[in-house]
Amino acid sequence: MLKKLALCGLIFCASAQVFAAPSATGEEPVTEAIDHVWSGQRVWFDFVEQDNYQMIAYYDASRQMSLAVRRVRDVHRGVWNYHKLPSFLGWDAHNHVEAAFDKNGIIHVVGNIHANHLVYFKSTRPYDPRSLKQVDVMVNAKNETSTTYPEFFKDPQGNLIFKYRQGTSGQGHWFYNKWDADKGAWTALHDSSILHGEGKRGVYPKGPVIGPDGFAHLAYVWRETPIASSNHDLSYARSRDLVNWETSDGTPLTLPITLSTGEVIDPIQQHGGLLNGRTPIGFDADKRVVVTYQKYDENGNTQVFITRKDGDKWVSRQVSTWKNSRVDLDKGGSLDLPIDTSESPYLNADNNLVVPASWRGIRWEWVLDSTDLSVISGGEIKQSLPKSIARFDEDNGIRFRVKPLMEDQSKKSKNVYISWEALQPNRDIARENIPAPSTLRIHYVPTSADKK
Fold it and tell me: Fewer beta carbons within 10 Å, N or C terminal of the chain?
């Protein structure tokens, strides 16, 4: 299946398997400090693993793009190999950093970009961050002049794929590149872009995510201007090979997909409360696609919604029933938003759907009947973090960030994490004061299986 490498836009998220070695007793949690890091605004770091090598990509206390790589099971119990890259973060919370290994262990790092020239580094030696060299052009210099939202993932054959947006929020279009690990070269996966705003609007995809049906699934929204309230028309596409795309009923789509040619699955108008980057994809017990998103209800409050195709049409259901929850989206830049619907819906042990979200920093979960999507139960989740991690959340008014290790660069670990503290975004504007650096830590939390 398609291996998703990095992307967890949540304060806390977890699933999948155990990776790191346990403590001597096999029972006690282990925490290790890695570095002091930037805490002036939230910019997401990356944490991946392949062939017993772990890699963390982050911004240090001086805002410098940094890498730490280690072989987990070496005789020194995993000594970190650090390297600083010649790229420094400003105040833009869009400028997250992405890192990946290819099948031969060559390191790829992209980051610190928001509508500017691609910033890309590649190692010359496997698993060696100190051999990283900056590469000026990945594939096409013309398409790499105004890049944003970099992301690595792998195709079904294990080839490294890189996607990014060229252009700005009002006129962006998206490209996929494919890495040939044997030849050491990138090529364009398509003759054109895959999604295109036609110079009139932007488009924001979530995915691709491979489902149990074997398709790669995309959910995306359109946006007319840099102002967030201009998002509209939740849309969908799918593919078996990442090259040929179609609608949910199998109708072929000509690339690039545009507003007029794509499949709209909820025709939300501008100023309807729809937000880009908050449309994660999950699957129900019958392997059908379920998309979570947010929009205004009939009273103007922001609520959590889901949509699923039943028969020949998409059916939407309101999940939350919050009061006084309207989120003002008449702003540009990276917003400090009280509602987050970034995490995918998933199945519980009873094969019912669980829809997670957060409101004002508190996690909520709703259990939905898989047959008719009615809400069975729902409410606040008081403590979703293991106590061994939560104890590092200082009472200082700065949000605690936790990301899981991506095992084999594809699966979220449920017991290996990194954590740090960082303020919420400030619309990409400088603050009057800079908080003290935070400590970046790695945590190993043994599971019950480790204790047997």
Answer: C
